[in-house]
Structure formats: structure tokens, C-alpha cells
Amino acid sequence: MPKPNLRILLIHLLFSIVFLMIRAIQSESITYLFLIWNSILAYIPYLISLYLNSKKHWSLNLIILGFWLLFFPNAPYILTDFVHLHLRPSPDFWFDLIIFFSFAINGLIIGFLSLRRVFRWISQYVSQPIAWIASYSALTMAAFGIYLGRIERWNSWDILLHPFALVKNIYQVLFPVQEQMDVWWFTMLFGLFLMGHYYFFLKLSVRTQKSSHEID
To answer: Alpha-carbon dihedral of residues 46, 51, 53, 57, nearest 10 degrees?
Structure first.
């Protein structure tokens, strides 16, 4: 059985897909069906995080963590799909906007849920302060991963298919620093955006749990 949070998000994703299908039928266009594929990619890091287990050998957990980090940027990446929207004075634009917003929220939350699982695992193995540092580092790396995906057009699996070309491109877009400040600014600002919203997500989750216990 899916976990409660995952079950709710899957229902929400289905809700978004239904609206997307209605839009596709109404517009006689399948232009935005890529949102479904991007959502599938956004769920991969959460599914990977389910395999983290304190009972497994630490080396196996590190391998799992490496794959999680590789696919983690796919969750917040869906926020950048708004680039495909074209502003126009039409009711259709606003319908498209709420569809994109629905998919983006779903992807961001499933990403945060996977990060929270990783945070808890690291807290068990090391300490909570180290877990916080690791979480914020992962969000910053995710921001850079979003840049590589959206601007440089790389995919998560390219690290396996074209590792040398990817590493070369990463070096080219980061150095020399003074000539690549737009990349550094993008990474830092997007990383701060994700960090802030992840912090509020955690606080809201704790308050919600406390409130439910009080009601019980």
C-alpha cells in the first residue's frame, strides 16, 4: 500500500492529468503532455528514497543516495516548465496556467518529501546538523542541476551515457567564475528559493502533525 502522503499526491496528480486531458481535447492539441513525463521523473527520487534503510550496509545506502541525488533535480525542475506558457489575452491562458501550477506544486512537494526521508536517514546515521547541511547542499546542487537541464539541455541519465561531455560542460559553465556569474547567481538564488520553501514545508508538516494529535 502506498504511504498516506504518496497516496494523496498521486490522487492530486491524477486530478491534474484529468484537467490536462480536458485541455487537450478542448484545444485539440497534445502540446502540454510533457507535463506528465516530467511528473514521472519528479517521482523517481521519492521512490529511490524509499530504499534507504538503516538496516542496509552503509555502502549500499551511499549508492542509493547517489542515485537519489542524481535524479533529485527532476522534482523542482518542473517549476521551470512555466517557460512553455505564452502570455495571451485569452481565458485559455489562465486555464493553462492553473494546469502548470497544479503539476508544479505536485512535483515540488514530492521532491520535498523525498528530501525529508533523506534528512531523517542522515540524522540517524550522523547528526541532525549534518543532515541540515546535506539537505541545503542537495537543494543547491538541484538548483545547478535545473540550470544544466533547462539551459544546457542535459538529462539525469547523461551522466551515464555522456559522462565526459557532461563534466566538460559543467566546468565550462562554472569557470572562470567572473565570466560565469549568471550561472552562479542562478544557482544561488534558485537554491535559496528551494531552501526557504523546504524550511517552511518542514515547519508546516510539524505543525500539522501536532494539530492532528491535539484533535485526536
So the answer is: -130
